Amino acid sequence: MTQITMVHGAGGTIMNELIKNYVVKYLGGSVADVPLEALDDSAVINGIVLKSDSHVVKPLFFPGGDIGRLAIAGTINDIAVMGGEPLALTCGLVLEEGLAIDDLEIILESMKNTCIEAGVYVITGDTKVVEKGNLGGCIINTSGIGTRNRALDKNIMEVKKYRSFDARWILDSNLREGDKIIVSGTVGDHGLAVLSAQEGYDFGSEIKSDVTPLNKLIQRLLNIGGIVTMKDPTRGGISNSLNELSEKSNVGVWVEEDKIPIRGDVRAACEMLGIDALEVGNEGKVVIGVVSQKAEEVLATLKGTKEGKDAEIIGEAREEFNGVVLRTMVGGKRILAPPIGDPVPRIC
């Protein structure tokens, strides 16, 4: 009998097959504006943006963050990248017997501070306690609800100045020939920070998670306009995100390897461990598709912020091929295939 393995939750092709072949098969079929079958970062029904997210990161505390900050920021970001304006959150705590109350208090304070930072608050929830086992201390489920961002229509009007655009939301399927691809900052930071905490690795520098809520940053970008798609590149990293955009939009994606921002210590750590930084999850970055005429303005705005100071235009959508093609630093070309899964387990 086939059984669930850790790779089924690692954000790559195996997890996507599990979701498509089983979860969507049995739970799909709604008439939502953006339904489960779309497999976007959130769903939309009757103009309401909805997201549910469970967090099982191990360990609970890692350089730059903890499970509490991760839970709040992750759900907010998934709503924001759809063109939604997050309104409120729920919180379900599954606590493992033996978890220190002091640790729980640190986690809850972190959640509170992240809510204040984002301007979005927890308004209801649930708490359960289970016998000591393999939870690693606790699991947190956060769900979020949002409305149509007040700047979304303005953004879409700007897109329509330069090309046709029929979607009402910022969807994975919106990318078209000539659109530029922007990544908002260095990639791989979160996964390597969690891995260092899991395994006790010392990479010779302090690699910190990038976990942060991005709703206010995305609000600024939508006010500039021209954005057609956004993706939260968590499990499977930007490799998985770019392949999802390519597949759902039915267009090729050309990427310049030397334009992808990667911290030197992250690159060195990945090379040492035999890990591809492009497949490592992030929690405070966004992959953005934007019409070419607005790309430089969006990039300049990103670079003027703390969250986007390392942003770069890394490529563009092209119709002459399928999938994602990477031009390497030495001038060659290779297919950037979707990862089987994120190489670092339990990062979110």
In words, what does this structure look like?
This protein is an alpha+beta fold. It has 2 domains: 41-148, 60s Ribosomal Protein L30, Chain: A (2-Layer Sandwich); 152-335, PurM-like C-terminal domain (Phosphoribosyl-aminoimidazole Synthetase, Chain A, domain 2), CATH 3.90.650. The chain contains 9 helices and 14 strands. A 7-stranded mixed beta sheet has the order 9-11-8-12-10-13-14. A 5-stranded mixed beta sheet has the order 1-2-7-5-6, with helices on one face. A two-stranded antiparallel ribbon has the order 3-4. It is globular, with a radius of gyration of 19 Å. The two termini are 28 Å apart. 47% of the residues are buried. The mean pLDDT is 94.
Describe this structure in a few short sentences:
The chain has 348 residues and is α+β, with helices and mostly antiparallel strands. It is built from 9 helices and 14 strands. The protein folds into 2 domains: 41-148, PurM-like, N-terminal domain (60s Ribosomal Protein L30, Chain: A, 2-Layer Sandwich); 152-335, Phosphoribosyl-aminoimidazole Synthetase, Chain A, domain 2, CATH 3.90.650.
